[in-house]
Amino acid sequence: MSLPADCLFCQFVDGTLETEIVGQNEHAIAFRDINPQAPLHVLVIPREHYADVAALAGADPEALADLVGLAQEVALDEADGEYRLIFNSGPMAGQSVFHVHGHVLGGTKLGWSPA
Ligand code: AMP
Ligand code: ZN
Hints:
The chain is α+β, with helices and mostly antiparallel strands.
């Protein structure tokens, strides 16, 4: 598991690495996924490092609420407020970056094929 010092998403938060930030609030930032799976594919992450959504929920529910609010805001801006919000938790579920992130997907009629 990544430590904050070498975490890609922590580097987006602190500005060490550049990304296209499309929204932010007190606890969360939103930026475009580098490999979009839908016309809208933005990642929402907390400014603080937590490995997954359960860790975030346990430690800072207010930050999780801010993150969900930011997802909604981006989806209202870019997809009429209709979207899917996905948190992959663990490698078997497809998690590859261990700084919690919600995938905000929309902008088209979405299918349902997690396998
Ligand atoms: P997950 O597989 O759920 O952990 O999601 C990680 C997501 O991060 C994937 O959808 C990647 O496309 C995305 N990603 C990886 N590197 C970058 C990057 N440099 N900038 C933006 N998104 C990235
Ligand atoms: Zn991090």
